[in-house]
Description:
Layout: H1 8-38, E1 70-73, E2 83-86, H2 110-116, E3 126-130, E4 146-152, E5 156-159, E6 163-166, E7 170-173, E8 181-186, E9 193-194, E10 196-198, E11 200-206, E12 211-216, E13 224-226, E14 237-239, H3 269-293, E15 297-299, E16 302-304, H4 311-323, H5 330-343, E17 346-348, E18 351-353, H6 360-372, H7 379-386
Parallel strand pairs: 2-12, 3-13
Antiparallel strand pairs: 1-2, 3-8, 4-7, 4-11, 5-6, 5-9, 10-14, 11-12, 15-16, 17-18
Amino acid sequence: MSTHSAPPRARRADVLFAVSVLVSVGVLAWVVQQLGEKSVARPPGKNGQPGKDGQDGRDGADGQTCPDGYSLQPPPDDPDALVCRRTGAPEPSPVPQRQPQTAALDPQRRQWSQERSVPFPGGVQTVTVTSGASGYRHPDGRVFAGTIRFTPSVSRVISATHGVITLGPLNVTLDASGAFTAGPLLATDATGFSPSGWTYRVDEEPTGAPGRAYSISLPAAVPTVALPSIAPVESSSGTAPASGVVSVNGETGVVVLSAADVGADATGAAAAARAAAIAAAAVDATTKVGDRSADTTSVHGISDTAALETAAGATAKVTAHTGAADPHGDRAVAAAALAAHEADTTGVHGIANTSALETQAGATSKVSAHTAASDPHGDRADAVTKYVALAGGQV
């Protein structure tokens, strides 16, 4: 039996196969070793170098802004504030400062309302406005504080049934939960009132946040409505019904009414009655004035006119009084008293007796006589007997 050896190419293939098997086994053993090492906790390595800063993100959305068609504008009564207002709208008319009150009756008709303790007559269509279930809140849920004002675009409305009803602004304050209830407010299309289709201006004035102003309609078909659900509308003063009448006393077409149909007087009757009344009143007044003219007592606060004096009479009396020699009699009394005073010689002006006085002439004469006397005092003769004369002289 002969034997054959494998060719060289076949031997190389076998060697390569064996080597690949050995490499695969070695790789598998290394993988198993690595897996085993990872199961054992090792201390963390050193921190790597910080990476580069990333690119800036996009700008966030703006905060609270006005809706389309509105812009932030300072209100007329507070130039330091900003509120949302329709762009291009005319400046509002100043609102009179009045005490907050629900729209109510004309002052001439307020007694009717107060007696019944209701703001509107029965049957008038009204709307109550609320803040909605959640109230007014910040985006983070905090409750807003502040006021909401409802101002009618018309100052009054007229009803054939209820007469004139004046309208004014109503202010409501947000409560602790940011909620409010306003009303009842007169519906802007209330049946039987003119004009109809007018609007309310709403001023939202939250504390510490921008406010806004817009107009709304309050149709009678929705008697209770949440303000956030109402879409703003253009401000309007409404429209009045077309002129003309539909019927007169239930008749249509060409209607001819007599005085009796409308309960009026016949032509000229009212004028004649008026003239007769004026004439009668004139006669009555003339009679009463004539009667009164003859009265002399209790006239215009005067008990008796006979006791009065005319201006001419008073003047004559004053003239006579002034021309009298002694109208009061005091002149004669004064003259007599003065004469008696002049005749007094004792107790006059502090002098006990005027007869003891000397006149200037008498005093002068006496002094002169005294001076001319040879020995007025008698001392000279006495001196001659007592003193020796000087040589060659005399005493």
